[in-house]
Write a structure and sequence with these properties.
globular, oxidoreductase, 6 helices, dioxygenase activity, Phytyl_CoA_dOase-like, dioxygenase, Phytanoyl-CoA dioxygenase family protein, 45% helix, mainly alpha
Length: 132
């Protein structure tokens, strides 16, 4: 079991309760230099989420989900300090810094979104999967 403390009180309450954010939504202030439109960044700061329709195809989502399913069952991942697990069931709840420990998610985290880049990214992913 992870030695990392779950610092989110909302996951420790018996019933839902409105809590103020502990951390900022956006750490950068130069929205003009952000990798997406400033309006999207402002909406993300306001709403806490961003929707980029069709960023990934259904086939690409299937690859990401398969990797997540694998990680949920990996004893080494579940025992890592980056894993936060449900207290009763032990199910994986959160996996911190996944982009540092997993090659697939490292590539996703480092990507610059352009159709040409995405095509080469997924070609490399599918090539490596077919070789495995």
């Amino acid at each position: 079991m992870s030695s990392r403390e779950d610092l989110y009180p909302s996951r420790q309450l018996d019933r839902p309760e409105w809590l103020e954010r502990q951390d900022p939504v956006l750490y950068r202030q130069d929205l003009e230099a952000a990798p997406v439109a400033p309006e999207l960044m402002a909406r993300f700061e306001r709403d806490g989420y961003m929707v980029l329709p069709e960023l990934f195809s259904p086939q690409e989502v299937a690859v990401l989900r398969a990797e997540l399913d694998r990680l949920r069952q990996d004893p080494e991942v579940l025992a890592s300090d980056e894993a936060i697990r449900e207290p009763q069931s032990g199910a994986l709840r959160s996996l911190f810094e996944i982009h540092k420990s997993n090659p697939l998610f490292a590539r996703v985290a480092g990507m610059r979104v352009s159709p040409r880049w995405l095509a080469s990214f997924w070609a490399a992913i599918f090539t490596s999967i077919s070789r495995a």
